[in-house]
């Protein structure tokens, strides 16, 4: 599947976060054969857990599914540029490729504010492809934020 097709799947997963009033970010992890190994959406509100970002949950589920923490030859596709916590976890998991949709100019750690995954000082580096279906990924976040502001 193409990056765009995979991002459409991640966007579908992101929609599921709305049921628990979580920020709609979705992540999927695929293996080298293009098979989906794990999916997750943000669950911070659902579990009152600041680490329950879509990427972290997807990494945990993939590692559990595969019975190993090393996710070499796997790709993570996420609707929003990973934050520093998630970028660090992605690097620690040895993910080979990171594909993301919307850029996060305030907290992005894969090219916007920082570039933890491709920093020359990093022990492990991954290929990064950002801006995939950027408008669609940004729109779901924008609509969510506007809805939250209307309630407040």
Automatic annotation (TrEMBL):
Annotated source species: freshwater metagenome
The record describes its quaternary structure and partners as:
Homodimer.
**Which top EC class is given?**
hydrolase
A Pfam short name:
MafB19-deam
The UniProt entry's sequence similarity note says: Belongs to the cytidine and deoxycytidylate deaminase family. ADAT2 subfamily.
Q: What biological-process terms (Gene Ontology) are attached? A: tRNA wobble adenosine to inosine editing
Q: Which CDD domains match?
A: nucleoside_deaminase
Secretion signal, residue range per the UniProt entry: none
What cofactor is needed? Answer: Zn(2+)
- Give the Enzyme Commission number: 3.5.4.33
Could you tell me which residue ranges the CMP/dCMP-type deaminase domain spans?
Answer: 1-124
Alphabetical keyword list: Hydrolase, Metal-binding, tRNA processing, Zinc
- Molecular-function annotations in GO: tRNA-specific adenosine-34 deaminase activity; zinc ion binding
Protein name, per record: tRNA-specific adenosine deaminase 2
Q: Does the keyword Oxidoreductase apply?
A: no
Q: Which reaction does it catalyse?
A: adenosine(34) in tRNA + H2O + H(+) = inosine(34) in tRNA + NH4(+)
Q: What HAMAP family does the record point to? A: tRNA_aden_deaminase
**Coiled coil spans:** none
């Amino acid at each position: 599947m193409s990056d765009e097709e995979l991002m459409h799947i991640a966007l579908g997963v992101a929609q599921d976060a709305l049921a628990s009033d979580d920020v709609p970010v979705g992540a999927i992890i695929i293996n080298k054969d293009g098979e989906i190994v794990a999916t997750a959406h943000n669950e911070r509100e659902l579990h009152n857990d600041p680490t329950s970002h879509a990427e972290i949950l997807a990494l945990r589920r993939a590692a559990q599914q595969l019975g190993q923490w090393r996710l070499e030859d796997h790709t993570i596709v996420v609707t929003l540029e990973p934050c520093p916590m998630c970028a660090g976890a992605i690097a620690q998991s040895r993910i080979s490729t990171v594909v993301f949709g919307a850029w996060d100019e305030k907290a992005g750690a894969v090219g916007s504010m920082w570039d933890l995954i491709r920093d020359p000082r990093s022990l492990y580096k991954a290929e990064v492809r950002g801006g995939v279906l950027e408008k669609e990924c940004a729109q779901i976040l924008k609509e969510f934020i506007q809805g939250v502001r209307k309630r407040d």
